[in-house]
Amino acid sequence: MGRYRIRLATGAWLFSGSHNRVQLWLVGARGEAELELQLWPKRGQVEEFEHDVPDDLGPLQFVKLRKHHSLVDDAWFCDLITVRGPGACAEEVAFPCYRWVQGEGVLTLPEGTARLAGDNTLDVFQKHREKELKERRQIYRWATWKEGLPLTIAAGCENDLPPNTRFHEEKKLDFEWTLKAGALKMALKRVYTLLSSWNQLEDFEQIFWGQKSTLAEKVHRCWQDDELFGYQFLNGANPMLLRRSTSLPSRLVLPSGMEKLQAQLEKELQTGSLFEADFILLDGIPANEIRGEKQYLAAPLVMLKMEPNGKLLPMVIQIQPPNPSSPAPPLFLPSDPPLAWLLAKSWVRNSDFQLHQLQYHLLNTHLVAEVIAVATMRCLPGLHPVFKLLIPHTRYTMEINTRARTQLISDGGIFDKAMSTGGGGHVQLLRQAMAQMTYRSLCPPDDLADRGLLGIPSALYAHDALRLWEIIARYVEGIVHLFYHGDDVVRGDPELQAWCREITEVGLCQAQDRGFPVSFQSRAQLCHFLTMCIFTCTAQHGAINQGQLDWYAWVPNAPCTMRMPPPTTKEDVTMATVMGSLPDVQQACLQMTITWHLGRRQPDMVPLGQHKEKYFSGPKAKAVLNQLQADLENLERKIIARNEHLDLTYEYLKPSHIENSITI
Q1: How far, in Å, CA of 75 to CA of 323, rounded?
Q2: Are 543 and 275 in contact (CB under 8 A)?
Q3: What is the DSSP letter of 298?
Q4: Three-class secondary structure assignment of 430-493
Q5: What 8-state DSSP symbol labels residue 313?
């Protein structure tokens, strides 16, 4: 007879406990034993008990659970079960769960040691992983939201999602209540401005109240400054478009009389200090119509110069590309009448708003992360080390994306109500952005090199992104090398290779022609891809999402829509032109509400690398995670020390500010 000591941990979320009775079995290599216990798991508690088993079960392989119910199926969120066998020297064995236990079926939890498919000396583990994947492929199915875009989880609304992808109750309540609070605040602002004028830039101050950041206040004060305009291309909400010029863009047609500008541009080009931001992707995208009023889009080009002190200043703006059937578009300069120059910059900021939200935020982080998450559930069993590595970085992603497709980018959603790309243009823009999305563009060392942004002291996003990439890469390499002892093991892992194909060929719709791999041939190639996956789901989303609250709260700095066509002359631009172009009160209120809702820190936020779930068993994997946490703490200290010497601090890639997955 042997005595087993069992610890059963229940989740801390609301409704994690259950009033239903739970039945347990221990399954070992030499036998199985039902534990005659009466368990009613309680939220946030770890219950410990001992049980004598008459037979020698041998090394434990599985714990089986069954939850009984009479009238109500009261779901139970089981975190982890650990078992210590008989004998003073027996080691504690962990059985990770971290999922809802529902219905009356038997749930089988394997012992938590990560195993590759080829490592299974015991056939029971191979049968378990095959059965698990078969069931998962039925639960996690692909769907097409729009042709030409990444595939998504098959769910018409959040209630259709698998239970283990859903928001926990606190997250759900916070998300829905803050939406209602935002709607109330928006209504109050509309009432407040009903009898007020709306014909001066200062009138936007009537709605610039409520929760806002210190940086948003600075943007409010300084948004018209060329220095702040240029800074945003390096370290603002969207640092992804700027690139160092290698030649003067062909679309930049300089008319006679601008020889001085031509010489300045060529001088900056020769010294390597000429930069450009080209919004040509917006050319030809149909503009929205909001409440019967036509909106307008442009595809600007802005040329900027890097000063020796690191400041990036605009030199010239071309709002629209040349059209053979029309006169050459005007070029706007800092020396132009102030309102004309301000309006030209507003067109650039509006265009940046569209590409930021759709190309760099929605597509390159949210939708890519969803493909990674769905493919992981379909192709990698819970015993696989890559599953254990990635699963903490997929939390809530499927639900937040499903909510976006039903509330934000749906027909009649937020984009249709307030954004100049709404009404269908946003889908067309996403398709064109998808065609340009390369594997290199998702990997900062490659992307920043391709854009010529390496080694620029004032490029804070670039600096922090590279440091984080290196830290995540070391973490990934540490885990991969524990389980893949050579390139041949990588090539011989059928589950891993199927996962790779599922992402590139299925989820990303045949993306191999844009550099995405269809197989892994080496440990180095696998590590690079996994680093991209984790970086995209954590740091990149943090850099792209968090800035909304700072840079978009003062609406004139980043107008969500433009209500008049771009100016064709400079002399005719008046304050009425500027105010008639910028969003109206209702659109501005909606922009402030949604960017506050999406950009604020989440109350149940889990910082990068700080997840509590113990998917890996054994001291070696734990040591790798501990090293990741130490590296992140060290980077945090360095960023804090650097920021003390900056007028404008850059905090979006402080590890404590980066969420461990895409949850908003």
Answers
A1: 62
A2: no
A3: -
A4: HHHHHHHCCCHHHCHHHHHHHCCCCCCCCCHHHHHHHHHHHHHHHHHHHHHHHHCCCHHHHHCC
A5: E
pTM of the shown model: 0.96
Q: How far apart are the first and last CA of the chain?
A: 52
Dihedrals phi, psi of 275, to nearest 5 degrees: -130, 160
Taking 90 as the threshold, does the pLDDT of residue 40 lie above it? no
The DSSP bridge pattern shows strands 92-101 and 76-84 to be antiparallel
- Which carries the bigger pLDDT value, residue 192 or residue 558? 558
Helices (H), 108-168: 123-139
Distance CA(59)–CA(69), nearest Å, equals 31
Q: What is the pLDDT averaged over residues 239-263?
A: 95
Q: Under a CB-based contact definition with an 8 Å cutoff, are residues 552 and 591 in contact?
A: yes
Whether 564 has a pLDDT exceeding 90, the answer reads: yes
655's CB contacts (< 8 A; 6+ apart) are: 468, 607, 608, 609, 632, 633, 635, 636
Give the residue among 291, 563, 281, 280 at the shortest CA–CA distance from 420.
563
Nearest Cα neighbor of 655 from 612, 607, 615 is 607
User: Cβ contacts of residue 109 below 8 Å, gap of 6+?
Assistant: 62, 63, 64, 65, 81, 95, 96, 97
Q: Give residue for tokens 């060290």.
A: 634
In the 8-state DSSP scheme, what is residue 211? S
Specify whether the CB–CB gap between 635 and 471 falls below 8 A. yes
From the list 365, 341, 338, the residue with the least C-alpha distance to 150 is 365
19-33 residue pLDDT tens: 888 889 999 999 999
How far apart (Å, rounded) are the C-alpha atoms in residues 601 and 146? 30
DSSP 3-state of 382: coil
Nearest to 73 by CA among 105, 35, 31, 51: 105
> Considering Cα of 615, then 605, then 171, then 543, what sign does the dihedral take?
negative
Which residues are CB-contacts of 44 (< 8 A; sequence separation ≥ 6)? 10, 11, 12, 16, 17
Q: At what angle do helices 619-643 and 460-483 cross, to 10 degrees?
A: 170
Residues for the chain: how many in total?
Answer: 664
Q: Token digits for 225?
A: 């400054």
Whether 122 shows a pLDDT value over 70: the answer reads: no
Helix (H/G/I), strand (E/B), else coil: 59: coil
Alpha carbon of 349 to those of 231, 275, 399, 427, 470: distances in Å?
12, 17, 30, 20, 32
